[in-house]
Automatic annotation (TrEMBL):
The keyword Membrane does not apply. InterPro entries: AAA+_ATPase, ABC_transporter-like_ATP-bd, ABC_transporter-like_CS, ABC_transpr_LolD-like, P-loop_NTPase. The keyword Nucleotide-binding applies. This is Cell division ATP-binding protein FtsE. Belongs to the ABC transporter superfamily. GO terms for biological process: cell division. Keywords: ATP-binding, Cell cycle, Cell division, Nucleotide-binding.
């Protein structure tokens, strides 16, 4: 099966907590986030998400559990033929909700992330930072209990990275648990939070 990417990890993501997940490239940060999102299953060991053993969750149950988790991907994953509004609203459309029931919420969220004037813009004309904020808004529109962000500031300049961090901090204050995977030491030094450090497949935690 090849070498293990992660091994012998033991940790808990507490409700309403904030933590950075860090380590060198290739340390397994993205893999750990995928395990938390239940898009990967562990080859051994136990992972519980919302008090459920991931190894025993039926496939039909996964979508409902994943809706309680917001994910910000490195690649944004915006659909180029949809406007910023439509991209952010996509998780609600998938649930079959009518636009009239969520339009005001999406507009308010876009204003909150600084995209109030880009509601009708298509992704190809957005800057990297604007795409990142749109991806964050899409992850938040379902009001997740946990937010997993994979290198959310990797494609933006330091001032915007600081602004994005403030958004995550404010989100945490509103009650969402936040896990930010990053190798940006400067970003982490801006906010006093728990650090989970991966190195050679093992995890060290600094409170």
């Amino acid at each position: 099966m090849g070498a293990e990417v992660l091994r012998d990890l033991s940790f808990q993501i507490a409700p309403k907590s904030f933590q950075f997940l860090t380590g060198p490239s290739g340390a397994g940060k993205s893999t750990l986030l995928k395990l938390l999102f239940m898009s990967l299953k562990p080859t051994r060991g136990l992972i519980t998400v919302f008090d459920r053993d991931v190894g025993t969750i039926r496939k039909a149950e996964l979508p409902a559990l994943r809706r309680r988790i917001g994910v910000v991907f490195q690649e944004f994953r915006l659909l180029d033929h949809l406007t910023t509004f439509e991209n952010v609203a996509m998780p609600l459309r998938v649930l079959g909700r009518e636009e009239i029931s969520y339009r005001a919420d999406v507009i308010e969220l876009l204003k909150w992330v600084g995209l109030g004037d880009r509601v009708h813009a298509l992704p190809p004309i957005l800057s990297g930072g604007e795409k990142q904020r749109a991806a964050i808004a899409r992850a938040l529109i379902g009001q997740p209990e946990i937010l997993l962000a994979d290198e959310p500031t990797g494609n933006v300049d330091p001032p915007l990275a600081k602004r994005l961090l403030r958004l995550f901090v404010e989100l945490n204050r509103l009650g969402t648990s936040v896990v930010i995977a990053t190798h940006d030491i400067g970003l982490m030094n801006q906010f006093d939070a728990r650090r989970m450090v991966l190195h050679e497949g093992r995890l060290s935690i600094y409170e």
